[in-house]
Amino acid sequence: MIMNAMTRNVIIVGAGPAGLGQALALKRAGIPDVLILDARGIGASFRAWPQETRLLTPSFPSQAYGCPDLNSVFPEASPADRFVCEHISGPQYADWLNQEARRAGLDVACPVHVKAVDREDGLFELDTDQGMFRCRVLVWATGEFFFPSRHEYPGAELCVHYADVKSWRDCEGDQLLVIGGAESGIDAACNLIALGKKVTVLDRGGAWMEEQGDPSLVLSPHTRTRFRAALDSGRLRMVPDVSVVRVGDHGDGFRVYGQDGQSFACDGPPISCIGFVGGASQIRDLWAWRNGQVLLTPEDESTLTPGLFLAGPQVRQPGEIFCFIYKFRTRFDIVCHAISQRLRENESVPHLESFASHASGV
To answer: Exposure string (b/e) for 106-125, b if CB count within 10 Å is 16 or more?
Structure first.
């Protein structure tokens, strides 16, 4: 039974690595009364991944040297210790998050679906399917995977989005089209090539072309290695500078049309790998936006709504993209200090300790 009558200091919406990691950082900083809400359960987005998908960053138990596993948001723990492999699956990672959340004693309530958020008299009011929750500070950490980007060009409904795939074995056809050539598109292509399919990848630019750079902008080393092997198969065709404007069903297959009259045929539904709009869109009116990105203060607080913070892969700061776990976890301490400051306006909060100090055993 969920008890929701009281007002909490902090509510975090989302029980993935961003929400759990931020909650642990707040707990270790001595900030009391932190509650996590999630509509589906701890690590649910990872359980929804295609069966063949693996974490891009390798897991390695290096915390004894003060360097947490790249995929860890619990500084003293590593998924590699449990699964003894580097690139673990989504369900494995979700199991590990559940294990560590219980071990850390985090307060998680689920399933709780947040339907609307309002702010009145300095308090956030969360209308949920389990009643009303109130808090002084709200952290939005609902991630990206459950919020896919779906273009509205004619025929878009004929495509299968990456987020809808349960296993690449389920994809019909032998000659397939993938729309989007970034991480998810190349992952889709590599998995389909491994199943013996012929694949054509269409992309507006050509994200696969740059060999070096920030993994948030070019292919990660793990994906790049698999991509080269797929190219060597002779069954992968890459086509840059194609903006899709229409998809048609021709009875015995499908045809994807580009902006300049180009067209490409496939015998199974086209696979859309054009990314995700992200969970911040659930409460769109509480953020300021620019070019599809949430505008944040240097402390990851909404520039429009005081007391509202963003955590996870949607966080952007000038010149920085935080779409990997090892990146967005660097923001936990920054958010902790900002939340502490806000709560101190009303009551005393103990001295803060950092994620980094716990990771190094200080």
So the answer is: bebbbebebeebeeeeeebb
